[in-house]
Amino acid sequence: MIQIIYILLCSTFVLACSSEQQECANQLYSFEFEVFGKVQGVYFRKFTQLKAQELNLVGWVLNTKKGTVLGIAQGRRTNELKEWLKNIGSPKSIIKKAEFKNDKIIDELEYDQFDIIK
């Protein structure tokens, strides 16, 4: 698998990290997600918001008409939220799959907080 290496100058050190292995401490990331399964009516959006806040992430989450949960997350610890969305979710949820797209490094956050859109 091809890995993209990002290099950051941190003080007098060069910090190199792979986007697939770990996140660089000072880098901001953004991704979109959609979670499939029993994810509506089980407080999935609320638990996603709480997890995002715990990780100091911003963005939003909403229920779709097709029964999925859709959202955007931005910040430094996005890989931790991805793992949570894929494998944990809210206590009564049953996650069949989680899809991620538009993974990118950003210069600044586009949101002030992590919102639930109704």
TrEMBL record:
Please give the Gene Ontology molecular function terms for this protein: acylphosphatase activity
* EC number(s) reported in the record: 3.6.1.7
Q: Which InterPro entries would you find in this protein's record?
A: Acylphosphatase, Acylphosphatase-like_dom, Acylphosphatase_CS
Catalysis performed (reactions): an acyl phosphate + H2O = a carboxylate + phosphate + H(+)
PROSITE patterns given for it? ACYLPHOSPHATASE_1, ACYLPHOSPHATASE_3
Alphabetized, the UniProt keywords read: Hydrolase, Signal
Q: What does the record give as the active site?
A: R45, N63
Span of the signal peptide: 1-16
Q: Where is the Acylphosphatase-like domain?
A: 30-118
Q: Which family does it belong to?
A: Belongs to the acylphosphatase family.
Please give the PANTHER family that the UniProt record associates with this protein: ACYLPHOSPHATASE, ACYLPHOSPHATASE-RELATED
What protein name is recorded for this chain? Answer: acylphosphatase
**Which organism does this sequence originate in?**
Paramecium sonneborni
Taxonomic classification: Eukaryota, Sar, Alveolata, Ciliophora, Intramacronucleata
